[in-house]
């Protein structure tokens, strides 16, 4: 049976909303909500990888596991250092769950892991149906174009990722969800590539994989959770989660 570990990269200095991992919803920091969702998936060990002592301390004090890393340009580079620090020899897959997804459905995490192992893919991620035109125009929401229309069963290739509005000249455009899963061997390959011009210009590290001819496969998520990129996102999620 394949073994998966979930590593959550997190840092205080996010450009659009500094300090967001420690912003509280229901008296619990956002990063701890993400850890909780990852644990509920029950597919492997869950670790937060961070360069910030404040995040390390708050995760540990709330029953989570954390590792201190160096300062990194991307979350993928950070999870790779976290993986190396674990010193585990028997891990087949690494899930990179972004630390600003407190509303992600644990069942979607499980489904992504199942799709990867079933299809023996190199990199996998999730996307959800777009139900509002405003999503296409919102540059804080990443979109993905897939080779085939997504359904509950398939795992299809990503053709491109973008932030800016491409209007509707393309079919199969979906709301990308902040989670990836890598074969360990592919993760090692990925982090040794230089950042590409495409990646830097679009602020999307997954483009580094596509630019180096590594396929990213996409599965359908049950819902499109709001990620915390801005203060407005935080207030919207806080209202939803605290109302529940």
Keywords:
23% strand, alpha/beta, 9 helices, 244 residues
Intertermini distance: 37 Å
Helix count, per DSSP?
Answer: 9
Report the major sheet. 5 strands, mixed, barrel
Query: What do the pLDDT scores average to?
Result: 89
The total strand number stands at: 11
Low-confidence stretches: none
- Radius of gyration (CA) equals 17 Å
3D shape: globular
Q: What is the strand content? A: 15-25%
Give the helix proportion (percent range). 25-40%
Model description:
This protein is an alpha/beta fold. Helices cover 35% and strands 23% of the residues. The chain contains 9 helices and 11 strands. Helix 1 crosses helix 4. The longest helix has 14 residues, at 106-119. The N and C termini lie far apart (37 Å). The mean pLDDT is 89.
Break the fold down into its secondary structure elements and pairings.
Blueprint: E1 4-10, E2 24-25, E3 28-29, H1 30-41, E4 46-50, H2 53-61, E5 66-68, H3 75-86, E6 93-97, H4 106-119, E7 123-128, H5 133-137, E8 143-146, E9 156-162, E10 173-183, H6 184-191, H7 197-202, H8 206-211, E11 216-220, H9 231-243
Parallel strand pairs: 1-4, 1-6, 4-5, 7-11
Antiparallel strand pairs: 2-3, 6-10, 7-10, 8-9, 8-10, 9-11
Short overview:
The chain is α/β, with parallel strands linked by helices. Helices cover 35% and strands 23% of the residues.
